[in-house]
Amino acid sequence: MSKRVNYSRHIEAYWLDQTALWVAEGLNKQELHDKINSMLSPLINCKVNLGKTRNQLTSLWFDKSDNVSNEFSEFAVEYVKESHDIPLVIHWGLLIAKKKFFADVARFIGRSSKLNDSFTYAQAQKRMVELYGDTETVKRGLRSVLKTMVDFGVLQRSNARSYQVNPNDLAVPNKLMNWLLCALLFSEDIMSRTLSDIIDDAIWFPFELSIEPEDIDKQWFEIHQQGYELMLFRKK
User: Fold this and answer.
1) Contact 162, 124 (CB under 8 A)
2) Which of 36, 97, 109, 212 can pair with 183 through a Cys bridge, CB separation 3.0 to 4.6 Å?
3) pTM: predicted TM-score of the whole model, two decimal places
4) CA atoms 149, 152, 156, 160: torsion sign
5) Cα(38)–Cα(29) distance, rounded to whole angstroms?
6) Residue 146: Cβ within 10 Å count
């Protein structure tokens, strides 16, 4: 069975920031839709595309998800309520957890960047077609993810066909570190993975991800030593 492409429109960091702030203010869904429509209508002329973009924003910050716990989503909203800024990594964590297609593209880019200075759209498309099938939906979704990452500043266009990873090494706030580890487990729909495997996953390519065993939060994880590896079991 083909996997579902759950990423249809590019989104910008500013749009995500505004959506997160409105959700943190406690707006209901209709109020949120009205705010997002007002924000996007000067920028997106097509009503269908505006609706798809709005729905993608609300699916990340407002809507409940079958594969992600309420505690995980609520933690992100509470962080925005208490924080003076909204780091890119919190949007990245939600995208990884809730948008498997985005996560698979991110992992391809991270792996590619360890071997080469740049990659082509054709190389990325080949990998996504292997995973999701050779359809226009896959190709359109890939273009949307790449455009999103360019807007985030983690990628840049080297030419019409190639991309390069910007060497950002963005810091991850300590308060978000354990939450971010959970994002990967939700993305893979698994309950456990070794700490080293999570930290080393290429999906985190824009960020400087580092956590010591003593910093693992037992509210989020049960911890078991298996040989030389530390295994994390998700609680929430």
Assistant:
1) no
2) 97
3) 0.96
4) positive
5) 14
6) 19
